[in-house]
Design goal:
304 residues, alpha/beta, Rossmann fold, DNA polymerase, domain 1, seven-stranded mixed β-sheet, two-stranded antiparallel sheet, 13 helices, globular
Length: 304
Amino acid sequence: MSSETTTYHVPVLLEESISLLDIDPNGTYCDLTFGGGGHSRRILQSLGQGGRLFSFDQDRDTLCNAPDDERFNYVESNFRFLRGALRLRGVEQVDGILADLGVSSHHFDATERGFSFRGDAPLDMRMNQRGGRTAADVVNQYDADALGRILREYGELDTTWKIASCIVRAREKSPILTTAQLVEAVAPCTPKRDESKFLTKLFQALRIEVNGEMEALKMALEQSLKVLRPGGRLVVISYHSLEDRLVKNFMRSGNFEGKVEQDFFGRRELPFEVVTRKAVVPTAEEIARNSRSRSAKMRAAIKL
């Protein structure tokens, strides 16, 4: 792996995820979140000459990490379009799907993208910079109720009506266009003891809303049932409870409520065999090497 790739993003639970994929050297696989390419390169190492890998990413910046390998196919697309993108390339079914839902270190470190509260940058947060609303659009155009909803649902913050009120009052004086202006706007309701944790959750909520991340995850999971061939494996690494709950419920039941359906005879209709009874988490050694891995939870299932 090149130093450039390592710098862009350190892959989380790398060997554990490859083990759970149980790669067939001649199989066809998808990496739904290419990013720095760490997981993709490791999958390629396990593939033979007859294997194929389709790696998705909507952020054109990641193209610079693409390996020069004829088995590798870069798909510039949000993974919500998984099935359609594969069919355009003549692929109906695959042997395994891997999704690392974490934001690449590159995005946090590239201050100008506006993903981090450390520094001052335009309030953007778009993974796909070719269009769509920005975080500034959300902060300045959503009413207090809508702001409170996304901060509660996606940031899991308390007293969100106070935070929304702070934002509304600040933007009435002048538009909130930068990360520093947003930090200043919420300063009156930022807890001094947990400032970093609070701001992390605030920025997370805005990023999820801007990029439609929860909707995209639901769409990709639903399409995985159509794309995976029987015996194919789905491996997902999530970083907050909202994602993990969706993944856990879907692998258990095929829906996002976790309700197991039964047929006419009372037999349980299960779409997957869950491989991970409990979520796989990073070791203490991995967390020491890469602190951004500390909240990762990985789950895997086999399509029945």
